[in-house]
C-alpha cells in the first residue's frame, strides 16, 4: 500500500495541471467557409465531416450501427472476392473527398470503389461507386437529404440507407435514373 500511495502521489504531482483541449480555438471561421485544411487542424479525436464548408460533428456510433455496417461490409467483400471482382469494399472510418475540392470530406459507413486510381494515400478522391449509410438519430436528416443530394451530384452510382429502428432499407440507383 505504501508503494501504491507513492506512485499515486508522484502521479498527482506530475500531472497536477491537466490540459483540457477544446475545439473552439481551432474554429475561427463561419460555417460554410471551412476547408479540409481547417479540419486537419482539429484534435485527432474529434470526428467530423465537412460538407460544402460546413463542419458536422460526429459522435461514436452505437454497437448496433457498427454491427450492421460490419455485416454488410463482410457480405459485400465476400461476394466481390468470390467473383474475382476488382472493386474494393471499405468500411468506415475512411475519408472521401467527394467533390475533389477542399470544401467536402465525408466518412460513409461502407463504400465500394471500383476505380482504384481514386484511392490516394489515406482517402478516396472522388465519388465511390456504392455508398451505405446506417441511419441514426443524430445523422438521419443529414444522410437522408444533404448527403443524398451530394452523393447523386458527385456521381455515386448507388446509395443505400439502412434505418435500424424502422428495419427498412432505402435504395437509390442513380446509375439507372
Describe this structure in words.
The model is unreliable at 14-21 (pLDDT under 50). Helix 4 links the parallel strand 8 and strand 9 (158-163). It is built from 4 helices and 10 strands. With 177 residues, the chain is α+β, with helices and mostly antiparallel strands. The longest helix has 20 residues, at 63-82.
Major β-sheet strand ordering: 3-5-8-9-10
Q: What structural class results from the helix and strand content?
A: alpha+beta
- List unreliable stretches of 5+ residues: 14-21
How much of the sequence lies in strands comes to 15-25%
H-E order: HHEEHEEEEEEHEE
Report the major sheet: 5 strands, mixed
Helix content: 25-40%
- Termini, distance in Å? 71 Å
* DSSP helical segment count: 4
Give descriptors for this structure.
177 residues; alpha+beta; 5-stranded mixed beta sheet; 3-stranded mixed beta sheet; 4 helices; globular
Q: In short, what is this structure?
A:
By secondary structure, the chain is of the alpha+beta class. It has helices spanning 2-14, 36-40, 63-82, 140-154; strands spanning 48-51, 54-57, 88-91, 95-97, 110-113, 119-120, 123-125, 130-134, 158-163, 168-173. It is built from four helices and ten strands.
Q: Could you give the topology of this structure?
A:
Elements (H helix, E strand, L loop, with lengths): L1 H13 L21 H5 L7 E4 L2 E4 L5 H20 L5 E4 L3 E3 L12 E4 L5 E2 L2 E3 L4 E5 L5 H15 L3 E6 L4 E6 L4
Parallel strand pairs: 4-7, 8-9
Antiparallel strand pairs: 1-2, 3-5, 5-8, 6-7, 9-10
Amino acid at each position: 500500500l505504501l508503494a501504491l500511495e507513492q506512485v499515486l502521489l508522484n502521479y498527482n504531482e506530475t500531472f497536477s495541471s491537466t490540459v483540457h483541449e477544446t475545439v473552439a480555438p481551432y474554429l475561427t471561421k463561419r460555417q460554410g467557409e471551412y476547408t479540409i485544411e481547417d479540419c486537419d487542424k482539429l484534435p485527432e479525436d474529434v470526428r467530423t465531416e465537412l460538407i460544402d464548408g460546413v463542419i458536422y460533428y460526429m459522435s461514436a456510433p452505437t454497437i448496433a450501427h457498427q454491427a450492421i455496417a460490419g455485416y454488410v461490409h463482410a457480405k459485400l467483400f465476400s461476394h466481390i472476392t468470390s467473383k474475382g471482382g476488382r472493386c474494393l469494399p471499405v468500411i468506415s472510418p475512411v475519408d472521401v473527398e467527394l467533390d475533389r475540392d477542399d470544401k467536402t470530406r465525408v466518412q460513409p459507413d461502407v463504400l465500394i470503389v471500383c476505380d482504384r486510381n481514386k484511392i490516394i494515400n489515406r482517402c478516396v478522391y472522388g465519388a465511390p461507386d456504392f455508398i451505405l449509410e446506417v441511419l441514426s438519430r443524430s445523422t438521419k436528416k443529414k444522410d437522408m437529404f444533404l448527403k443524398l443530394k451530394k452523393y447523386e451530384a458527385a456521381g455515386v452510382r448507388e446509395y443505400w440507407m439502412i434505418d435500424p429502428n424502422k428495419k427498412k432499407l432505402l435504395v437509390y440507383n442513380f446509375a439507372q435514373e
